[in-house]
Each structure stands twice: as structure tokens, then as C-alpha cells.
Amino acid sequence: MLEVDVKRRLGDFGIEARFSSDKGVTALFGRSGAGKTSIVNMVSGLLKPDEGRIEVGGHVLFDSGAGIDLPPWKRRIGYVFQEGRLFPHLTVRSNLLYGWRFAPAAERRLGLEQVVALLDLGALLKRRPRSLSGGEKQRVAVGRALLSNPRALLMDEPLASLDVLMKNEILPYIERLDETGIPVLYVSHSLDEVSRLARNLVLVSGGRVTRSGGADEILSDLEQWSPGDETEIGTMLATRVSRHDSEAGLTHLDFRGGELRVPLVDIPAGVAVRVWIRARDVSVATEPPRGLSLRNVLKGTLVEIGPDDDAGPLAELRMRIGDAPLTALVTRQAVRELALAPGREIYALIKSATLDRRQLSLVAAMAGPDRDA
Amino acid sequence: MSLWPLSPEEIEALGLSVRIAAWSTLASLPAAVLAAFVLARYRFWGKEVLNALLHMPLVLPPVVTGYLLLLLLGRRGLVGAWLEQTFGVVLAFRWTGAVVAAAVVAFPLMVRPIRLSLEAIDRRLESAAATLGANRLWTWLTVTLPLCLPGMVVGAILGFTRSLGEFGATITFVSNIPGETQTLSLAVHSALQVPGREPGAMRLTVIIIVVTVVALVASEMLGRYVARRTQG
């Protein structure tokens, strides 16, 4: 359990953030410059709030009222920085063990073997940071922070300096952090990462927390984001694997509005999966289409057309498919020609091939009864 | 003129030179690291004055440095008298005084590379150490110090070679006493004062060249080794 309530002025910019998070990954999500890094720096003790209170797992780390301000080395908060910050003069093994000695023996739940296994670091132990790839460096940085056996883990855009291939190489490891039971505060401006990793979400804008809560709930509520935002619009669907059709090479996912077919994934049936559907991958039809290659045709109702200001060539169509929301991005011209209007019955079309493994995130490990699709 | 074997006096001067230079380097190094750290990391009133004072021996004529040392640390000097009364330590005209003279002159040369090396350290590594649980002292010992090791090696090399060649401050402060303060460079000077001893001076010169080259080659190798270790 992590509770943050801090204020801090930084020149013309003011940060005023208040949120709490439970175990699992909580994403601090917002544009660059929104103040996310400053917030985690305050949690780590690297930046002092003007006033406020920070508590992690029942330990008060900062309380301006009570005059408490623990230095970073007494906070036991792990920190994975954007640029890794591995010690260049130490081997990977020594880097990993750097913080281990400082954890009280009784609180050393994670040892070298476990972390090496979790992050697949066995082959790197004798090497030095300079000879590692970007992705390997970040994996070591994650391991080093974990081995200090922290009460919470902060990750500040740990993938931002990596290319797409490396990101996909390291994301599965970060997904597995949930196994450790350590609460994670994950700073990101990438919707991809957030949708895949986060259980809880804290939206940050202009130094303030604009919303916080369950990730599914906030992510499927896309009125939060307007086009032009660097974050892409789309819909997060909570689904469950129903069956695999290996002959057709498709996996069937059930959700509140029906069924979705995606390219075969190796996730067992019954497991909850979150699917991120980009609005630009969804098209619409006013009649049941025939002779189409598309595997996903979902009948629903058009709820709203946005944005209201009529600006730009594209319109967002917000629909309901059964109980589930879905957003499509289409041209204004199509809206006119099809005479689309709220309340109208509509067919949403999604190309299966756009829903590859990257759009899917496992919520199995963290799924409680409240997360049923 | 044959170079080998060396005469007992030459061996004595050589041993004395190396001993004085080694002690001078060892004694200066911790102080140089401290001074470099203060200059690299802290801002305070009078920092420029301190910086200028530390660099004085570099620009002052060595004979002036030696004279100042004599005034300060001589048996009747301000600090020298106190040292003798309190600890019974006498520096003037002793080989230990030669160590002090060499150390003072070499000091600014040692501070500079260490300071540059400290300034080049990515301080975010120190924040990283703090988040892992290391307090300031431990961070300094396990991150800062190892990362400025290349600067310390360069500083020590410069200090050692400068001490080895020290002449002006030494002869002024501790005179030129064979077996006590007569280092190789002072021995060359003595030899040149006496007609007919030029061959002796030449032999000493060759010894100095050999010692310096050996020291430089060894230090270059050490420097490379350390740089390789610290940069990963």
C-alpha cells in the first residue's frame, strides 16, 4: 500500500499530487513534462516536497507536519531509472548485489538466484555494464532494485530509451514483477506499456492528478483523451480466453459484448486478458457486411460522435457493443455519407491481424473476482 | 666512463630520491583527494582564494616555496617550533623535511586530475546508490572513489615524478646533506660545483633518465589497467 500526498513548486510549475495504490503495477500516466518523474523522485527521497505526506506499507517516509523526512537510503524504495544507471566499475553480479546487504536479513525475501531466474540474467553475471545491450542493462537495473528487497519499486520510463524490439523483449519480464508482490509505481507516457502492465492507473496532467483508479475502468473510458494527445485513442476490453481453434489459427476471446477472434496466442482458456483495440483499427458498417475477410463483426449501437468541435478530418465514433464500450476512428466524410447519428444500430469491424500479442495483456496473475470479463 | 657499477654514494642518492618521492606522493594523495572533492563539489565563500592558495606552489619559484617552508617549519618557525616542543619532530635539514618540500610542490599537480575526474562522474550514479540503501559515506567509498581512481592514478604519477625531480624548495628548506637530504638532482648539482666531477654528473643524469622513464612506463600501464577496470 502506497499513499502519496505531496506539493512542491518547481519554478513556474507546481506539483500537487494525491493518490494511493495497492499492490501490483500502478501506472503514473501522462504526457512528458506532466510532473510524473518529480512525483516518483519525491517518493524516493531524491526530491523534497514542500509539504505533504508519503507512506509506504505502513512506514511514514515523509511527513512535513510531523517533521519526518527519511533520506533515500533509509526509505527502502527501489528505483529503476530511465537510463539504467548501472555502476560501470562493477560486474553485473556486483551491481545486482549492491543493495542486497542493506536490506535487513528478515526482509530479504528475494535472493540472487530467484532474481536471476525471474529476469533471466544467468548468462550476464560476469559481464560489465558497458558490454550489455540496452535491454539487458534495464533487466539488470530491475534486478538490482528488486534485490535491495524494497517496500515498493519505482520505474521511471524504464523502456523509453529502448527500441521497439528491445521493449518487447523486456516487457514480459516486467509483467512478471507482479509475482514478487512488491507494489510498483510505473511512470510512462506510452499507452501501449500502460495498458499491458498496469492494474491501477493515475492520470497526471500539468502537475496534478486528474484521475486515479482501476486501469480497466479508466482505460475503457476514453473520453479522457482527445485526438492530438500523444496518447493514442482506443478501447481497453476486458476479455477471457474461451477456446483455441488451432486449425484456423485463431483464439476466441469472450467479452461482455460478444466474442473476439485474434491470432492464436499461447494463453490457456479461462484466463483473463485485456485487449487494447486502437480506434484506427476499427471500421463501421450500417448493414451486416458480407463477403469480408474480417473475422470480427460486432453488432452494437452508436452512442456519440466526437469530438464536438468538428475540427479535423477524423471523427471518433463511440459505440456500445452489448455492455462493452468501443471506439472507432473514421473520416468525417464517412460519417456524412453513411448518415451516422447517435442511437443508430451499427456493425463494428475489427481486423483480427491487428490484434496480435502486443495488444493483449495478461491479467491472469493479478485477476481477482472483480476482474471477471 | 662506465655506468656500472654504481658507487655507494650514487646508490644512496637514488634510494633517498625514490624514498622521498614515494612518501611525498603517499602523504599528498589523501589531502589532494580531499581538496579536489571540496573544490569539485562544494560552493562556499572564499573558494577562489582557497583554489589560488592551493595552486601557489605551482607558480611560485621553488626557492621561494622553500624559504616560506623554512620560515614556517624551521626549528624557529611558527609551526616548526611547536612541532619540536610538542612532538619532538624536527623537519628542517632532515629527509622528512625533503618529503614535505616535495609534497607541497607536487600537491597542485595531484589535485587537478583528481578534480577533473571527480567532476566527470555522473552524480546520478550516487543517487542510484542512495536509493539502493547506501548512505553518503558508503556511496563515496564504493562509487565515487572507485570512479575517480583513474584521476588519482594520474595525479599520483604526476606527483611522484615531480617529487623525484624536486630541487629548489628542497635545497632551500633542508639543504644538501649527503645521506640525509641529497637526492639525485641535488647530487647532480653538487657534482657540477666541483671541477673534474662532470663524468659523475653525467652518470647521475643517466640514472635520473632511466628512473623517470621506468616510472612513466609503469604508471602508464597502471593507468590503462585502472581505466579498464572502472569503465567496465
Could you walk me through the main structural features you see in this protein, from its secondary elements to its overall organization?
The complex is a heterodimer of chains A (373) and B (232). Chain A is α+β, with helices and mostly antiparallel strands and 373 residues long. Chain A has 2 domains: 2-219, 3-Layer(aba) Sandwich (Rossmann fold); 235-371, OB fold (Dihydrolipoamide Acetyltransferase, E2P) (Beta Barrel), CATH 2.40.50.100. Helices cover 19% and strands 36% of the residues of chain A. In chain A, the strands form 4 sheets. Chain A has a 6-stranded mixed β-sheet with strand order 7-8-9-3-10-11, with helices on both faces. In chain A, β1 (2-10) and β2 (13-21) form a beta hairpin. In chain A, α4 runs antiparallel to α5 and α5 packs parallel to α6 (164-175). Chain A is globular and about 65 Å long. Residues 222-230 and 364-373 of chain A have low confidence and may be disordered. Chain B has 232 residues and is an all-alpha fold. Chain B has one domain: Orthogonal Bundle (MetI-like fold). In chain B, 78% of the residues lie in helices and 0% in strands. Chain B has helices at 8-41, 47-59, 62-73, 78-87, 95-120, 124-131, 136-147, 149-164, 168-174, 184-193, 198-230. The model of chain B has no long low-confidence stretch (mean pLDDT 90). Chains A and B meet through α2 and β7 of A and α6 and α7 of B.
Helices, strands, pairings?
The complex is a heterodimer of chains A (373) and B (232).
Chain A: E1 2-10, E2 13-21, E3 25-29, H1 36-44, E4 51-56, E5 59-63, E6 68-69, H2 72-75, E7 77-80, H3 92-97, H4 112-119, H5 134-147, E8 152-156, H6 164-175, E9 184-188, H7 191-197, E10 200-205, E11 208-214, H8 215-219, E12 234-245, E13 250-255, E14 258-263, E15 272-278, E16 282-285, E17 296-306, E18 314-321, E19 324-331, H9 332-337, E20 345-350, E21 360-362
Parallel strand pairs in A: 3-9, 3-10, 7-8, 8-9
Antiparallel strand pairs in A: 1-2, 1-4, 4-5, 5-6, 10-11, 12-13, 12-15, 13-14, 15-21, 16-20, 17-18, 17-20, 18-19
Helix pairs in contact in A: 4-5, 5-6
Chain B: H1 8-41, H2 47-59, H3 62-73, H4 78-87, H5 95-120, H6 124-131, H7 136-147, H8 149-164, H9 168-174, H10 184-193, H11 198-230
